[in-house]
Amino acid sequence: MQKAGNKKEMKYVLVTGGVVSGLGKGVTASSVGLLLQSCGLRVTSIKIDPYLNTDAGTMSPFEHGEVFVLDDGGEVDLDLGNYERFLDIKLTRDNNITTGKIYQSVIDKERRGDYLGSTVQVVPHITDAIQEWIERVAAIPVDGKEGSPDVCVIELGGTIGDIESMPFIEALGQFSYRVGTGNFCLIHVSLVPVLNVVGEPKTKPTQHSVRGLRSLGMTPNILACRSTMELDVNVKEKLSRFCHVPLENIVSLYDVPNIWHIPSLMRDQKAHEAILKALNLLSVVCKPALENWTTMAQRCDMLQEPVVVAMVGKYTGLSDAYLSIHKALLHASVACRRKLIINWVSASDLEDATALKDPEANRAAWNSLKAADAVLVPGGFGDRGVEGKIIAAKYARKNKIPYLGICLGMQVAVIEYARSVLGLQNANSTEFDANTKNPCVIFMPEGSKTHMGGTMRLGSRRTYFQVADCKSAQLYGNQSFIDERHRHRYEVNPNMVSQLEKAGLSFTGKDETGQRMQIVELHSHPYFVGVQFHPEYKSRPRKPSALFLGLIAAASGQLDAFLKKSVGGTKANGYIPIGKGKPGLSPKHRYGPINAKVNIGSFDGMYTNGNGLHV
């Protein structure tokens, strides 16, 4: 692995997709990274998105799923969240390459005169810029250790044949030739559908996809075949013959109860050996240490006792819009030994206007809310559904239901408290009512109202605890401060804090100036917490987010026991699993008609069979 002069030779794994989008390339790339990491290699990841946007910050969640935020404030594709969760690493904004970023960098160079009068073209200028970007970012350590990683896993978004991805395919073809065959491995994820009429897997779509890939100058080393059922040897032999891929390099990725099974599924088919062989790393120990990971996946499958969380949001029609929140809830639920059930509640359906216009939708939304053991109001933008979120916060507060408000979810909790307890009926955020006489939430002084992209308060920021024995401080292991990721333009009005605190609301976490409210709690409530930051972004399968852990523990009757354990015993974002708990501690489950809009969702690229939990 060393070149002349002791310079480490970087290895690259490229993951592409064919036939259809949404096959689970992100999960496959994350699983490949985990396999290599379990073999003792240091791994980093890059996601290539062929769209013209500079980043994901201005894209609607309905269009592209959630916007994932990194420590450095980068607003990136949600797949980088998968990489961070699987590999427990911290990526940078440059780990997400977009067409917009590449073209912007090339145009900036042209304007400066860097090309010395040359005609600027896709080849070589754009393709060279892509290759230079990959090489530069691949060398950045992301695991907290010094020195560059050993392997960079690159995921190319979209499917082979998309016109948007052509410059990237050309660049990656040149790149594979330049770094050499022993330093580059191509994994092609393709669909092998099983037609109900015939009842057998059909290989033709994958054959055409690989043919298209080869016509662009690239031949896959490994075929990762997505299907609802495990492929038998006859199907693999047919794929091997027509796709020119060795039989042992064809991996069957069939539907499993949850995506945590995918790494062990690939390991059992010796995918890691095929990758290491392609990368000329045969000296690496080929025994991925996945015991803890596999145990976690199996435990998730066996969970029986449910915990029901009402997710009251704006984008509930697309579960990918709240992907990291869903993951954080799941991490906490597994730690608490509870089976997660999410009631997706459209915030606007809780409002009085919907009760008049569509009473059935209003009734269903309220049934889902009342059937929940906990209420979570996530972040969002725009005024649609805000009154419904305020209603949900009020319901949780008055009925002592565990509540977690994130970003806007914290702001609506403050607005609701000002209206209901302080009697300020017109209290509001200036985002929704610019002329409100009681502005509980205001626009940040340094914000921009003319430019949307990259103008929010973004990335990792520090929060200092103001109250030593509050629930949030205890959940974070009694640290004096924490670092969490932010994404917002509005914040609680500091001029109203004194009035709110006199009425019983406690702002237990603030920034270094003491002017920005970061955490709010209601001490008289079993668990009522609102945070301006987004704790979901740093939650990991084996390190659940503190506040999500608190929510699920409170919803399942385990919070007091956990807080006793946590005193001096845990650190921020590094938690000890709670254990099974005592059945007698569980609250009275308010199920009612459990079929009232209960929907786990179906994301992660078809990697679930509908019978188990989506991880």
Features:
disordered N terminus, 18% strand, disordered C terminus, 21 strands, 7-stranded parallel beta sheet, alpha/beta, 615 residues
Summarize the structure.
With 615 residues, the chain is of the alpha/beta class.
What do these coordinates show?
By secondary structure, the chain is of the alpha/beta class. The model is unreliable at 1-6 and 568-615 (pLDDT under 50).
Radius of gyration, in Å, reads: 25 Å
Strand content bin? 15-25%
**Secondary structure tally, helices:** 20
Cα distance spanning the termini:
35 Å
Which stretches are low in confidence, meaning pLDDT under 50 for 5 or more residues running? 1-6, 568-615
Overall morphology: globular
The counted number of beta strands is 21
Largest sheet: 9 strands, mixed
Write the layout of secondary structure elements.
Elements lengths: L10 E7 L7 H14 L4 E7 L11 H4 L3 E2 L5 E2 L2 H9 L8 E3 H14 L9 H17 L12 E6 L9 H14 L4 E8 L12 H12 L6 E6 L5 H11 L6 E5 L7 H7 L2 H8 L12 H12 L3 E8 L9 H13 L3 E8 L5 H6 L1 H12 L3 E4 L8 H13 L4 E4 L1 H13 L7 E2 L9 E5 L13 E9 L5 H5 L5 E8 L1 E3 L4 H6 L3 E5 L6 E5 L6 E4 L14 H10 L3 H8 L49
Parallel strand pairs: 1-6, 1-7, 2-5, 2-6, 7-8, 8-9, 10-11, 10-12, 12-13, 13-21, 14-15
Antiparallel strand pairs: 3-4, 15-18, 16-17, 16-19, 19-20, 20-21
Helix pairs in contact: 1-3, 1-9, 4-5, 5-6, 12-19, 15-16
